[in-house]
Design brief:
Length: about 200
């Protein structure tokens, strides 16, 4: 897998003047310290510095079977979650990946097949969201796609050479929603997608 280049700094805006960037780390992704001036609401310009971690943008997809009311999720080790209190670091998530230079829809088709083994037919874009805007530049593109059991063309599991070891889990939507309440599902993007389906079901007669 190629590493994404950090995005070039944008031009100034009405309320922001960029003064410079210090590279703190580009070991795998890029961590920079950005020096800038921000115009406060009272008109005063305030000098500030903030660190920003750039790992590119990503896409995430919920596979949803409206006939059986089931979803397909993944389970994999996430080091940052392990460092921050997850007892085994295994997180249940909707399948997702970094864009790696692709358009979001192409990315999510590739990731769905690599991670879950499902070949998706018609992904529907829902929304875009910054997931951790105080520290991480990433914007995530959210999709949903209907699936049926016959759409699974291979085992999935991720790319072994890249260290991925992904378990594919199918469960009723009701169980997934209960898992949010119990704390068994703690991944933000996944919670957003499951709640989207739950809300859409409530609002569809
Ligand atoms: N060697 C090396 N490999 C890395 C490193 N960091 C990540 N990788 C590898 O880069 C690949 C990233 O896998 P993707 O499936 O493309 O991304 P993801 O980690 O699933 O990201 C998704 O979830 C994230 C967490 O919620 C999201 O931030 C992201 O947008 C996306 O949705 C994995 O094979 C991972 O092992 C690193 O520091 N070193
Ligand atoms: Mg992934």
């Amino acid at each position: 897998m190629k590493r994404p280049e950090a995005a070039p700094l944008p031009g100034d805006a009405e309320n922001v003047r960029l003064l410079g960037a210090e590279l703190l780390s580009d070991s795998w992704y890029t961590l920079r310290k950005i020096h800038f001036e921000l115009r406060r609401r009272d008109g005063r310009w305030q000098p500030l510095s903030r660190e920003a971690y750039d790992r590119g943008n990503g896409a995430v997809l919920l596979l949803w079977d409206p006939v059986r009311r089931t979803v397909v999720l993944t389970r994999q080790f996430r080091l940052p979650a392990f460092l921050n209190g997850s007892p085994d670091g295994q997180l249940i998530e909707a399948c997702a990946g970094l864009l790696d230079g692709d358009e979001p829809e192409a990315c999510i088709r590739r990731e769905a097949e690599e991670e879950t083994g499902y070949r998706i037919r018609a992904p529907r874009k829902l929304f875009e969201a910054y997931m951790s805007p105080g520290s991480v530049t990433e914007k995530l593109h959210f999709f949903i796609a209907e699936y049926a059991p016959g759409d699974r063309v291979r085992a999935g599991g991720g790319v072994v050479e890249e260290g991925e070891d992904i378990e594919v889990i199918e469960m009723p939507l009701a169980d997934a929603l209960a898992a949010i309440a119990s704390g068994r599902i703690q991944d933000g993007k996944t919670i957003m997608l499951l709640q989207h389906v739950a809300l859409a079901s409530v609002n569809t007669p």
